[in-house]
Specification:
Blueprint lengths: L33 E12 L4 E12 L3 E5 L6 H8 L7 E6 L2 E2 L6 H8 E5 L10 H6 L9 H14 L15 H12 L6 E5 L7 H18 L2 E6 L2 H4 L4 E6 L2 E3 L2
Helix pairs in contact: 4-5, 5-6
Length: about 250
C-alpha cells in the first residue's frame, strides 16, 4: 500500500490550501501556482429547470491531488466535464493556467495536449491493439509513426503492461484495460489527469493498484490529478477534497 498524504479538506468556497510555495495574494488560500479555477460556475439543463451545478467557485493548485466527492447526482461528473472542457458552463467560467477555456481558439487541441481523461468504462476500441489504442491521441500531436510506436511502448512499460501491446481489449482483464486507458491518457504528456470513478468497475484489490498507479504519476511526475468518487475510502487518499451536494460545493 502506498503512503497517502493527509491534509484538511477545503472550505465551502472550494479553494484548496497548498503545502508549498510562498504566501499568495490576499483573499486567496492557494499559495502554489493555480492550474484550474472555477469562477461562479453554474450548469443548467432543461431550460434552466435543473441545476446540475450552482455557482461553484474553487481553485486547484498545480501538482495537487484532489478528490471531487459526493453522492450520485450531486454534480461531480458535470464539474469534471467542465474542468476538462467537455462541457461548458451556463454561466461563470473555468480558467486553465490563467486562460478561460472559452478563450481557447482550439479547445480540442487544448484537451489533447494538456488533459488526460480516465473513465470508469475504458472506451478502448475493440478492433485495435493496446498499443494502437494508446497511439490514438498522438495523431493530434503530429507524431510520426515510429515515434508513436515508441511512445506507446514506453507508456505500456510505465503502466506495467510490457509485452501486452499486441493484445486486443478482449484479451485483457479489467485492470489491464484500465491501465491501457491510463497510458492513453498520458499519450501527449498532459499536465492534468481527470479520472471519473476510475475504480468503479474493478474489484477492490485491482482498484487499489489503479489508484496507486495514478498516485505515483501525481507524486513522481507532478501531474495534477482530479478524481471523481462517491467512495469515502478513495476520497481519503487525496491531498484535498471538493465536496458536492445538490450541485453546490459544501463544507465536508
Amino acid at each position: 500500500m502506498s503512503q497517502h498524504r493527509t491534509e484538511s479538506p477545503s472550505t465551502h468556497t472550494g479553494e484548496i490550501p497548498s503545502p508549498e510555495s510562498a504566501p499568495s495574494a490576499p483573499g486567496s488560500s492557494v499559495s502554489a501556482p493555480v492550474l484550474i479555477e472555477g469562477r461562479q460556475v453554474s450548469r443548467h439543463y432543461d431550460e434552466g429547470k435543473v441545476d446540475a451545478l450552482a455557482e461553484a467557485t474553487f481553485s486547484i493548485g498545480r501538482g495537487h491531488y484532489v478528490a471531487i466527492v459526493g453522492k450520485s447526482g450531486s454534480g461531480k461528473t458535470t464539474l469534471l466535464n467542465m474542468i476538462g472542457g467537455l462541457d461548458r458552463p451556463t454561466s461563470g467560467e473555468i480558467v486553465y493556467d490563467g486562460q478561460p477555456l472559452d478563450a481557447h481558439s482550439d479547445l480540442d487541441r487544448h484537451r489533447s495536449h494538456n488533459v488526460g481523461f480516465v473513465f470508469q468504462s475504458y472506451y478502448l476500441l475493440p478492433n485495435l491493439t493496446a498499443a494502437e489504442n494508446i497511439q490514438i491521441p498522438m495523431f493530434e500531436a503530429d507524431y510520426g509513426a515510429a515515434e508513436r510506436a515508441e511512445r506507446a511502448k514506453r507508456l505500456l512499460d510505465q503502466v506495467g503492461l510490457s509485452g501486452r501491446g499486441n493484445h486486443l481489449p478482449s484479451q485483457l482483464s479489467g485492470g489491464e484495460s484500465q491501465r491501457v486507458a491510463i497510458a492513453r491518457a498520458l499519450a501527449n504528456g498532459p499536465q492534468l489527469i481527470l479520472a471519473d470513478e476510475p475504480t468503479g468497475a474493478l474489484d477492490s484489490e485491482t482498484g487499489d493498484s489503479i489508484l496507486q498507479l495514478l498516485e505515483d504519476l501525481n507524486r513522481n511526475q507532478s501531474i495534477t490529478l482530479v478524481v471523481v468518487t462517491h467512495d469515502e475510502a478513495v476520497a481519503a487518499r487525496a491531498d484535498h477534497q471538493l465536496r458536492l451536494a445538490d450541485g453546490r460545493i459544501v463544507s465536508p
